Amino acid sequence: MSAWHKRKISGVLLDITGVLYDSGPGGGTAIPGSLEAVKKLKSSGLSLRFCSNETTVTRKTLIEKLNSVGFSLSEAELFTPVPAVCKILKERNLRPHLLVTNECLSDFSTVDQNNPNCVVIADAETNFSYHNLNKAFQLLKSLDNPVLFSLGKGKYYKSGNDLVLDVGAYMKALEYSCDLQAEVVGKPEKSFFNTALKDMGLSADECVMIGDDIVGDVGGAQNAGMRGVQVRTGKYRPEDENHSTVKADGVVDNLSQAVDLILAGQSS
Amino acid sequence: MSAWHKRKISGVLLDITGVLYDSGPGGGTAIPGSLEAVKKLKSSGLSLRFCSNETTVTRKTLIEKLNSVGFSLSEAELFTPVPAVCKILKERNLRPHLLVTNECLSDFSTVDQNNPNCVVIADAETNFSYHNLNKAFQLLKSLDNPVLFSLGKGKYYKSGNDLVLDVGAYMKALEYSCDLQAEVVGKPEKSFFNTALKDMGLSADECVMIGDDIVGDVGGAQNAGMRGVQVRTGKYRPEDENHSTVKADGVVDNLSQAVDLILAGQSS
User: Fold this and answer.
1) CA distance A60 to B181
2) Contacts of A24 in chain B (CB under 8 A)
């Protein structure tokens, strides 16, 4: 089979943190070459969507943050787990206890949170205190039919120069102590990728997902029928190239290289 | 087969929290009938040991706490995970980064903690902050051969009127994010029970373990060849009697009832 970038590509899905920019104290910085790469993609005529499990800030703040370092994203192009879980909560008449960052709370303002009958955890950062995790645990333990939503299940991500624990760690803690299995909303769930594909009006086999997470981005996209390409930026680690369960369709140094390969592959 | 208390019993192992007393703010309180039950056991001539995964306080404080509410325990009768893990660390030339309560630190004073090459977690209570868990995670992630010791793997326990997360939850979080399997020291590990059995000079089939944890106490004891009896005090919950993997040899209302059954069963 020909190289991943030589087969037909009509749409590109991009992860944000670790691909477009590195998060960290002070708002983060654009990854070299990514600004130009996004511009090239936008002017190429290919469909483009941004798929991120980012939940530490509101969608509005995330877009402001990205645009302040030179990107140009709109809400309509951005797929994150919060709108997806809000839809599920309303459909199933569930009222969440939220374990999220203080800022993220405002993205749930239209959701009834009285007398909670489920728990939603996101990347709550320092709100993942012993006290707050116990509150979520105690509520789940008190319910006849406990439901835990986890917005993503990442193992870790890069913040500044450090790797830090992602929501998946806390999901596993609650799953173990409550004897339940969380419902994951976000990457790597197929349904999450499908929402973006549907929005583009494209089929999975004509789309490529580019991300720094071998499981959440690459494995998730492949499971949804897309090609999954990993960048060697963000949380990428060399051992990802010998991952026990996921083999990327391609590995590139950064987004810039991926976009150049895509554009060259489609025009040749 | 005859009832658990009618077969020969030469030794009794008791869990502490939830069996002898309930922990909680202000030092905790003895469970009704337990003081008398321990006295009866001590004067019966049966061998008696206390097996606890308690790590929030030092061994000395634990004994003082128990004796202040009327028990009479000595260090020699008390089996907890800290001395066991200290022995392992020295044997394997491992220097721990400790994620434990501030008080528990002093039980590790003889262990070299410079330039750590492993992590030990215990029930660290409020020290299980996002910051501290990240420090343990980052160290493990930096090691070529990461080793994580978990002092017990309980899911939760009762503190005051609340169920609270036990060390097992945090063990699962680190296992997931570091892609490793912790080495558990303490209940329900067979080797931990065997140390107490060896100290009594008794074989497993003539001993009974009494605890409130269906997995850690009852399942662990049974796996070591003992009978495992659950009390309906402490963290006991009615669904434990239909547990998916562990069936207790006996279930009793409290320690007092267990001891009365044992003493009646042995004299008849």
Assistant:
1) 39
2) none
Most B-contacting residue of A134, A144, A161 (CB-CB within 10 A), to test interface: A134
Of B124, B169, B179, the CB nearest to A177: B169
Same domain, B180 and B85: yes
Does the pLDDT of residue B24 top 80, yes or no? no
Residue A181 forms part of a structural domain: yes
B202 and B117 belong to one structural domain:
no
Share of chain B above pLDDT 90, in %: 92
Alpha-carbon span B138 to B133, nearest angstrom: 9
- What pLDDT is attached to residue A160? 83
Instruction: Please tell me which residue of chain B has the smallest CA distance to A154.
Output: B177
Phi, psi at B259, each rounded to 5° = -70, -40
Would you say residue B1 lies in a domain? no
Q: Which residue of A has its CA nearest to B158?
A: A138
The rounded percent of chain A whose pLDDT value lies above 70 is: 99
CA distance B170 to chain A (A): 6
Using the beta-carbon criterion (under 8 Å), do A173 and B170 form an inter-chain contact?
Answer: yes
Q: Do B89 and B22 lie in a common domain?
A: no
B177 and B194 in a single domain? The answer is no
Chain A residues with beta carbon closer than 8 angstroms to that of B137: 156, 163-165, 169
Lowest mean pLDDT among A1-10, A91-100, B47-56: A1-10
Amino acid at B150: S
Taking an 8 Å cut-off on Cβ atoms, the answer to whether A177 and B155 are in contact is yes
Query: How many angstroms away from the CA of B223 is the closest CA of chain A?
Result: 21
Domain boundary residue among B184, B212, B246?
B184
Q: What is the pLDDT of residue A221?
A: 98
Average confidence score pLDDT of chain A: 95
For residue B251 the two structure tokens come to 């279930």
Specify the CATH number for the domain of residue B107. Answer: 3.40.50.1000
Confidence of residue A164 (pLDDT cuts 50, 70, 90): very high
Domain boundary among B136, B159, B184: B184
B70 with B203, same domain: the answer is: yes
Considering the domain architecture, whether residues B37 and B121 belong to the same structural domain is answered as: no
Q: Is residue A13 part of a domain?
A: no
CB contact under 8 A, A155 and B179: yes
Mutate to test the interface with A, among B129, B133, B213, B240 (most CBs of A within 10 A): B133
ipTM (interface predicted TM): 0.91
List Cα–Cα distances, B122 to A22, A94, A126, A155, B238, in angstroms. 34, 35, 21, 21, 27
Q: Which two tokens stand for residue A143?
A: 């319910």
Task: Please report which confidence band the pLDDT of residue A268 belongs to, taking 50, 70 and 90 as the band edges.
Answer: low
Strand pairing category for A29-30 and A21-22: antiparallel
CA distance linking residue A263 with residue A117, whole number of Å: 49
Within this chain, do residues B106 and B151 fall inside the same structural domain, yes or no? Answer: yes
By the 8 A CB rule, do A68 and A29 touch? no
Please tell me whether residues B210 and B257 are part of one structural domain. Answer: yes
Could you tell me which of A190, A236, A259 has the C-alpha nearest to residue A51? A190
Number of domains in chain A: 1
Range of the domain at B109: 81-184
pLDDT tens digits along B223-259: 999 999 999 999 999 999 999 999 999 999 999 999 9
Is residue A54 in a domain? no
Q: Name the residue of chain B whose CA is nearest to A131's CA.
A: B126
